[in-house]
Specification:
The complex is a heteropentamer of chains A (449), B (294), C (239), D (245) and E (347). Chain B has eleven helices and two strands. With 294 residues, chain B is an all-alpha fold. In chain B, strand 1 and strand 2 form a beta hairpin. With 239 residues, chain C is α/β, with parallel strands linked by helices. Chain C is globular and about 45 Å long. Chain C has two domains: 163 residues, 3-Layer(aba) Sandwich (Rossmann fold), CATH 3.40.50; 67 residues, no CATH class. Chain C contains eleven helices and ten strands. Chain E has a two-stranded antiparallel sheet. The radius of gyration of chain E is 20 Å and the shape is globular. The chains are: A alpha/beta (449), B mainly alpha (294), C alpha/beta (239), D alpha/beta (245), E mainly alpha (347). Chains B and E meet through helix 3, helix 4, helix 9 and helix 11 of B and helix 5, helix 11 and helix 13 of E.
């Protein structure tokens, strides 16, 4: 007994020692290796493809990202990764981007931040200082972004927020953080606009949301927007982050019987909310939920309970943004919607994900790469300050729709959200009218009035 | 306050309470016999929920039958983790078992994630409903609570009506006494731990049938926490205590919501959590052996 | 020479790094009563615990019915009929008297004779029958000791080991219990290894006695012999 | 020499078992008292009531005329009551020196005592009890008699007025036992500590050690007196041997 | 008692020296290795977390699963100080004032929780502390105080106080230097405790609480004192790492039990109750994590193996192996086998 214990101990100690040695080796060798590969001081590196195109000197521009590939944002992280890779591949297939006479192909480097702010900082520093990345996709969520921001700013790198819909982070005076998606406070704008337009009779709104930073920002934004449209918010309640049973908070709605119910939070609670609304027989004229209904398996998981539920979406595969309908003052750039989906599917297949469609998280990340690439071209330089300046004047129209930022804060002001709805087991875009595939199903089937 | 609202509070408080009870007894069986607090408890519940999800979702096995599969899977997982880990830690300091069971939990979560991904999933097993006092009585939830009750009765019968159960209770009361009457205490440890895991995994299936959504690799964590509260309420180690405390806890959660929701400017359902833990502290201080122990 | 049922040779054992038994040898004859006497801390309880398998012997040999059981776990030994009534009784306090007895019949042998054993135990200890539904923890000291012995009898032992059965009991009850032991030997054909502080009474019922001190046997012999020597009292009381 | 300790009709029961039944006695300063009685006679329970680990169901305990029945153990230690355990309970992961130093630091003389002084006092006491050379050894690695000596040393380091020794010589060879008894006497004479010891069987020790003997049986005090009277008393012999020889 | 106990001071310095030396090496590496300063800062964070946690768990044997609540209390305390100052001015005063308020809040929380929960033992204590942590989180969210679920954002206020550049410095190098300082304070506090009567008392409690009680040690007092010291250090750590360095204090993040668990892992890997243990624990934990995440995962990725989340699957069995094979941890294992002289150093 004692002897085998000692042997186990020895084995354990040896294992740990080996790990420390390997770690130390990586720690030291990691540096040297990267330094050897650095080609120019601008941060571009000689790519592997350099030899294949001898006619023109092609260099590599590295874009980096801490992505949440494990932990609570793992799903979003995986989609973002594939969306970013899809756009990077598209740009490279177009021959890369041209900056001041040189052509650059893009390379995308990423590490898993485990959805943990304490991991993010060292990864961002590694990306900037060792992998010589000057342009970053920001991590998911405001907590992670806030932690990464001082380091990014210290090294003067640009971060594009593709997953953080937070408003607050952009009021903190960061210079180099730029938002791609519509901020949380404006999530339900399109949904409420739609109700206002198709049913002037609708008066009462109930809001039920998950008590979290994102969902609460959405809920409060929706509340004030609804009131500005003349709705009466009759119910405003939240539930804790990992609630399992929402019955207490939902049952009163049966008596209140609001015209419109909006809210939700993320995947888990959104599904639960939809299911329990259905089970408890709460049927307002419209149910609009955050995030969860945008996921393809929402209907698989819920069946009939999903029917008729609408959701605000940053993007849908069936949006009709195309080079043919570029709005006034905007310029088209990037793949078409079909091309994006095709590139995305290819990446997904390579990563063993099978035949799946991109979610809006993928589109967010892809759009961020496009916005960045165009800004670099516009700036004609890899200097982050110049690129950041170029972004101020950029008005881009892409497969993702409009992109334009507030020069002061970096907050996204151009992008509009669409409204999707589950109809007969399929997601269809029902708003805005010019982008819609079908009329909204309104009021909800089963609405008793 | 509407009559329907109060009726809903009692009805659904009781139903979820039964589920809480089933989802806690496993913790109690293991603590009672081995004096080990299973910090990985929730992960085993998660495994049960996935069992139902996968068997019903992709193979169409009727959900009540998936509980049987969960019990089997629980037996396998229980035996593996017992002989690989727990067996070596039975006499180790409490700290070691707390950390070890936590590590087992992580391993389960990450394995399930590696196989099924981190998506939140659900399924639809709709049995319809009846409407009483403007409250929908959802049959699938009733069915889940009944199945949970059946599990509890089976466990009760096992512990209070069989020889194995008698031996388990004997070990709980006096380990050395159990040795001298010829009980193989090591074997009782293995069986009790496995039994605890079996009922825990099975409770995951029951939970899945009740909620039918929100199934993801990390879903169990909240049940570890609530399980602790309920286990302590009922007296760590007590089977009936866990059940009664589960029902009381479900009612308490729902009732405190009803009261808190009368107050303006706060978020009642979120606060019920705080109150639940406040309750835990109070019980620990006043009667750490649980509410129903002499 | 009568046949020896239990033979312990050069037994060494202890707790952690602390050695308590330093090579003890003793034996119990079939249908015999051997008594182990000695001052507190001499290692009597450790001896019985090691023989019963509750602690693992470090070295030495334990033979029971001609079979080597040195390292057998306690449940195996109980199954073979080697049963301990431990010091401090170790009853199941929350369980009823009858449940305690049923647990005594946990082994195959015990289960087979369950009904009969129960009747027998109740006939030996009628007080237990009266209190069959009562929780064991609420019994008086004497009744608890009866229950502990009754529980052990349920396993249908061939050798019963008792660790200070009269501890904390009124002298009358202590003597009553020791008398019962003698009766059991006669009626049930039990062999007994007795650790007892009531020297006179135990020497009265024993066929052979050992005096141990500091984990070693310092004196052994038949009771009359030992009593005559007078050494016993001296060794034991230190007078 | 005034009265140091007085126990007044203390009772304690566990479940159906009466461990102490209206026990009363008192101890004067400077006495060496042995409490004897067979296993299970209530001695340990009595000790636990005196040092505060157990609360009696009824009755009171006075120390230096003060009612200490409700005081927690550490407060009693401050007043000057120290004890040893029957099964020695040194802190196994700490060295012998550290074990004794903790006694010095937290005993009645420990207030304001620096760690350095505590350690040097501990070194002295190690010599007094004869554990020289073991100062740096972890207590868990000592032999059983050494652990007993360590317990004694730890208790002495606490500079108590009353020292309760629980079966201090059980399991020791006569030689070791004599050594311990001599040490205890020395401690009483040099430090003026009153000693109450419980001794189960080793009557030779009792005779050599005690000035007064209290005999317990069945949770009651059977009789008390000088060793000479008590050890020959037929009742005592009966208690121990079952019947009069 | 007013005289300085020179003996205790000297022994404690001797005890602290190896740990301080290790932190000095980390400090040198922080500046010497380009592009790894944040990795070192991360190791530092976990080392200090382990160090602070260890003062309580390592010395008393109690597991506080809700320990992260102290870090949260510190983060909130620091933020409150900044919000109080913003608009009033006060420039760099925000750091000392913030740390002061953080310490006060953490200490009060520890005192309160300690007075209640430390009457419990073992699993009951562990469970009660989880309750405290979760209860606090949902209290903040449910009552919608201190920013509710959105949390407190203080970057802008810090920029107003000390300017852009100042904030930049404060949130990066300065925060890390303060963390090094905190590491030193934690080590010295631990070694000082170990060398005084309090240390003796705590060790006695850990080894055998009942014996300690019987020997006259006021067990409750020392447990609460250790709990408070541990809590204050945790509060300062939370203030530095989350409020100053992170600039956002969000309940979902700062009450995350994962941090407690990580603290346990680090202390267990290194060895409970030792000074060097948490440093080695943090080195192993973060080293393993970073290596697998940054170096091994991409290699596997390019070989077509999706390897994210791998480190957790690796970490769990390693943790199990350590607990079964060497329950005293790495440093603890060395310590228990080492001759007494070495033991003093390794402590």
């Amino acid at each position: 007994m004692g002897e085998s214990r000692n042997q186990l101990l020895l084995a354990g100690a040896a294992l740990l020692l080996a790990i420390i040695i390997i770690g130390a080796a990586f720690f030291i060798l990691g540096d040297r290796g990267e330094e050897g590969a650095t080609a120019t001081e601008t941060g571009a590196r000689e790519g592997a493809e350099a030899g294949e195109t001898p006619a023109e000197e092609v260099e590599t521009l590295v874009i980096g990202a801490p992505l949440s590939l494990s932990g609570k944002y793992a799903k979003e992280g995986e989609m973002s990764l594939m969306g970013a890779l899809a756009v990077v591949n598209w740009i490279n297939d177009q021959g890369g981007i041209k900056v001041g006479g040189k052509t650059y192909k893009l390379e995308f480097i990423f590490y898993d931040d485990e959805s943990n702010p304490d991991r993010v900082v060292s990864l961002v520093e590694k990306l900037i200082a060792e992998d010589n990345v000057n342009f970053l996709l920001a991590p998911y969520s405001s907590g992670l972004t806030a932690k990464a921001a001082p380091i990014a700013e210290k090294y003067g790198a640009i971060m594009l927020s593709h997953g953080g819909a937070s408003d607050k982070i952009f009021t903190q005076g960061y210079e180099f953080i730029v938002q791609i998606l519509t901020p949380a406070s404006r999530y339900f704008v399109s949904v409420l606009d739609m109700v206002k337009a198709i049913d002037p009779e609708a008066k009462t709104v109930a809001i039920v949301y998950k008590e979290s930073e994102f969902a609460r920002t959405v809920a409060e934004g929706a509340k004030s927007y609804a009131e500005s449209l003349g709705f009466e918010v009759v119910y405003f309640k939240s539930y804790p982050a990992d609630a399992q049973d929402l019955t207490p908070v939902l049952q009163p709605l049966k008596d209140i019987n609001p015209d419109v119910l909006i809210g939700g939070g993320h995947f888990a609670d959104g599904q639960l909310l939809a299911r329990q609304l259905y089970e408890l027989g709460i049927k307002p004229k419209l149910i609009g939920l955050l995030v969860a209904p945008a996921i393809p398996d929402f209907y698989d998981n819920l069946g009939e309970a999903a029917e008729g539920i609408v959701y605000p979406s940053q993007w849908e595969p069936k949006v009709k943004y195309s080079p043919d309908n570029v709005p006034e003052g905007y310029e088209w750039y990037g793949p078409t919607v079909e091309e994006f989906i095709q590139y995305f599917k290819e990446v997904a297949r390579e990563r063993g994900k099978g035949d799946i469609m991109p979610s809006y998280h993928a589109a967010d990340a892809g759009a961020a790469i496009l916005f960045l690439a165009k800004a670099i071209e516009k700036a004609g330089s890899l200097d982050p300050e110049k690129v950041r300046e170029a972004m101020n004047d950029l008005a881009l129209y892409t497969f993702y729709g409009k992109l334009k930022i507030d020069p002061e804060t970096g907050l996204q002001v151009g992008h509009d959200m669409v409204v999707g709805q589950w109809q007969n087991g399929k997601k269809v875009i029902v708003w805005p009218r010019e982008a819609s595939e079908a009329d909204p199903l309104y009021p909800l089937p089963g609405y008793s009035g | 306050m509407e009559v329907g609202q109060i009726f809903a509070t009692i009805l659904y408080g009781t139903l979820i309470g039964v589920i809480y009870g089933v989802a806690t007894v496993g913790l109690n069986v293991i603590f009672g016999v081995l004096r080990i607090v299973n910090v990985g408890h929730g992960a085993f519940i998660m495994v049960g929920a996935y069992t139902t999800l996968v068997l019903y979702g992709s193979l169409g096995v009727p959900p009540p039958i998936t509980i049987a599969a969960s019990i089997l899977l629980g037996a396998v997982l229980g035996l593996i983790t017992y002989y690989l880990v727990i067996k070596h830690l039975v006499d180790a300091p409490e700290l070691a078992t707390l950390i070890a069971t936590f590590a087992i939990g992580i391993l389960l979560q990450e394995t399930v994630k590696a196989i099924y991904g981190s998506d939140t999933r659900g399924f639809s097993w709709n049995l319809g409903f009846a409407e009483v006092l403007n409250v929908n009585i959802v049959y699938s939830r009733l069915a889940a609570a009944l199945l949970g009750l059946l599990l509890l009765i089976a466990l009760y019968a096992l512990i209070y009506r069989t020889k194995l159960g008698l031996a388990m209770r004997a070990v709980v009361q006096d380990k050395e006494g159990a040795m001298v009457v010829g009980i193989n205490v090591d074997r009782i440890y293995a069986l009790s731990y496995t039994l605890g895991i079996m009922i825990t995994v099975a409770s995951g299936s029951v939970l899945a049938i009740y909620l039918q959504s929100g199934i993801h690799p990390y879903m169990g964590e909240i049940y570890t926490l609530k399980g602790f509260v309920i286990a302590v309420m009922g007296g760590l180690g007590s089977i009936i205590g866990a059940f009664v405390a589960g029902v009381l806890f479900g009612l308490f959660e729902n009732a405190s919501y009803l009261i808190l929701s009368q107050i303006e400017g706060i978020q009642p359902l979120v606060l019920t959590r705080s109150i639940a833990f406040l309750l835990l502290l109070t019980i620990l201080l006043l009667k750490p052996t649980g509410l129903f122990r002499r | 020479m009568t046949k020896q049922l239990l033979v312990v040779e050069n037994l060494e054992a202890g707790y952690g790094e602390m050695q308590v038994l330093w090579g003890i040898s003793l034996s119990v004859a079939e249908r015999g009563i051997s008594a182990v006497l000695g001052p507190n801390g001499a290692g009597k309880t450790t001896l019985l615990r090691a023989v019963a398998g509750i602690i693992r012997p470090w070295s030495g040999r334990i033979t029971f019915s001609g079979e080597d059981v040195t390292l057998s776990p306690p449940h195996v030994k109980v199954g073979k009929g080697l049963v301990l009534v431990p010091e401090g009784r170790h009853l199941f306090p929350e369980l009823s008297v009858e449940e305690n007895l049923l647990l005594g019949a946990y082994t195959k042998l015990g289960r087979y004779n369950l009904e009969e054993s129960l009747d027998l135990v109740y006939s030996v200890f009628p007080r237990l029958k009266e209190r069959r539904e009562q929780r064991a923890g609420t019994l008086s000291g004497g009744e608890q000791q009866m229950l502990a012995i009754g529980r052990a009898l349920m396993a249908r032992p061939t050798l019963l080991m008792l660790d200070e059965p009269s501890q904390g009991l009124a002298p009358k009850i202590a003597i009553e219990i020791l008398d019962i032991l003698q009766r059991l030997r006669g009626e049930w054909g039990l062999s007994i290894l007795l650790v007892e502080q009531n020297i006179v009474k135990s020497l009265e019922i024993a066929d052979y006695a050992y005096v141990i001190e500091q984990g070693r046997v310092v004196l052994e012999g038949e009771p009359e012999e030992l009593s005559k020597k007078g050494d016993l009292i001296k060794a034991y009381l230190g007078i | 020499m005034g009265e140091l300790l007085r126990v007044e009709s203390v009772s304690k029961r566990f479940g159906g078992v009466v461990a102490l039944d209206k026990v009363s006695f008192s101890v004067d300063e400077g006495e060496l008292i042995a409490i004897i009685g067979p296993n299970g006679s209530g001695k340990t329970t009595l000790f636990n009531v005196i040092n505060g680990i157990l609360k009696p169901d009824e009755g009171r305990v006075y120390f230096l005329g003060r009612d200490i029945t409700g005081l927690p153990p550490y407060a009693r230690v401050r007043l000057g009551i120290a004890r040893t355990f029957q099964v020695p309970r040194p802190w196994p992961g700490l060295s012998v020196l550290e074990n004794i130093a903790i006694g010095a630091l937290f005993g009645s003389g420990g207030r304001g005592l620096g760690v350095a002084e505590a350690l040097s006092q501990a070194r002295n006491i190690i010599r007094v009890v004869g554990l020289e050379g073991k100062a740096e050894v972890l207590a868990g690695q000592l032999t059983a008699p050494e652990k007993k000596l360590l317990e004694l040393a730890r208790a002495i380091a606490m500079k108590p007025r009353l020292l309760l020794l629980d079966e201090i010589v059980a399991g020791m060879s006569p030689k070791d036992a004599d050594r311990v008894v001599d040490t205890v006497r020395k401690v009483r004479d040099e430090y003026g500590i009153t000693v109450v010891s419980m001794v189960e069987h080793v009557m030779r020790v009792v005779a050599r050690f005690a000035e007064r003997v209290i005999v317990m049986h069945q949770g009651r005090i059977l009789l008390e007196g000088s060793p000479h009277e008590v050890l020959r008393h037929p009742k005592v012999v009966e208690v121990y041997l079952g019947v009069a020889p | 008692m007013t005289v300085i106990d020179w003996f205790a001071l000297r022994t404690s310095l001797k005890r602290a020296a190896p740990a301080l030396a290790l932190y000095t090496i980390l400090l040198i590496l922080y500046f010497a290795v380009p592009g790894k300063s944040q990795l070192i800062a991360q190791i530092l964070f976990y080392a200090v977390l382990g160090q602070a946690f260890n003062i309580f768990m390592g010395m008393t044997g109690y597991v506080d699963f809700g320990y992260v609540a102290f870090l949260a209390a510190g983060a909130y305390g620091f933020s409150i100080a900044i919000l109080l100052l913003s608009g009033v001015g006060g420039g760099w005063m925000f750091i000392p004032l913030g740390l002061l308020i953080a310490a006060i809040i953490a200490a009060s929380l520890a005192g309160l929780v300690g007075a209640i929960a430390l009457r419990l033992r073992g699993a009951y204590f562990a469970i009660a502390t989880i309750g405290v942590n979760e209860g606090l989180r949902y209290l903040v969210e449910g009552l919608n105080i201190l920013g509710g679920s959105i949390g407190l954002y203080i970057v802008k206020d810090m920029k107003e106080l000390v300017g852009r550049e100042g904030y930049q410095l404060a949130a990066t190098t300065l925060a890390d230097m303060l963390m090094f300082l905190l590491a030193g304070v934690a080590v010295l506090t631990t070694s000082l405790i170990l060398s005084t009567r309090m240390g003796f008392a705590l060790q006695a409690i850990r080894e055998d609480e009942d014996a300690a009680r019987a020997l006259g040690i006021n067990v409750t007092k020392y447990k609460i004192a250790a709990f408070m010291i541990s809590g204050v250090l945790g509060g300062a750590l939370g203030a530095l790492n989350w409020a100053l360095k992170g600039g956002v204090v969000e309940p979902a993040q700062v009450f995350l039990i994962l941090y407690t668990v990580e603290a346990i892992v680090i202390v267990m890997l290194g060895g409970a109750g030792t000074l060097l243990g948490p440093i080695f624990g943090a080195l192993i934990y973060i080293g393993l994590n970073f290596t697998s995440n940054v170096y091994i995962a991409p290699v596997l990725e390019s070989a077509g193996i999706k390897a994210t989340g791998l480190h957790l699957i690796i970490l769990a069995p390693i943790l199990l192996a350590v607990i079964i094979a060497a329950p005293q941890g790495l440093v603890g294992a060395i310590r228990s086998r080492a001759p007494s002289r070495l033991r003093e150093i390794v402590v």
